[in-house]
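Need GNAT family N-acetyltransferase's 3D structure for a figure. Predict it.
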Amino acid sequence: MDSFDPPRLRGVKKRDLSAIAELEAAAFGSNSLTRSALDVIFDPSGGLWLLAEDDEGAWGHSVNARGEDPAIGWIVGMAIHPERQRRGWGQLLLRATIQRLQDHDMEVVRLLVKPANKIARHLYETAGFLDTGERMDHFGPGEDRMVMSLLLSSQSGRSGGGHVNGAMVPQVPAS
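Structure prediction for GNAT family N-acetyltransferase:
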């Protein structure tokens, strides 16, 4: 198994959307966020997104948005390329995403996950997410999704780094 340095995390720029669309397609197939969908949601929420990269390119992302209730943030899409999985990149990206949403005054983080995706569910449960419902046929017949939610502490690490559920979160440069 090759060793990889930890990723650099940074905010997303419009020029990164094609790479994110490719990561989405690799991770989620027909249920992925397309380039055109990313274009539509980037302007209102792109400041909440993160990219995980190294010297070889972009290998992970989190696409995030504020819900109708401004205290609720959604992880709309999050993926790590298979070549970088099982090396802690997902945990690092998730912790930084939670911190980023908390830094933007969100009190709850929600996401959707396939009930059968045990690896992703374990990652989210380890970070403190709880099963808070399900959406039947969310992406069509038989495409159910579990809703998972994380209640954030009222103490936000506004310095750009901090702790989430006891784990150190790296500082992410402002985009």
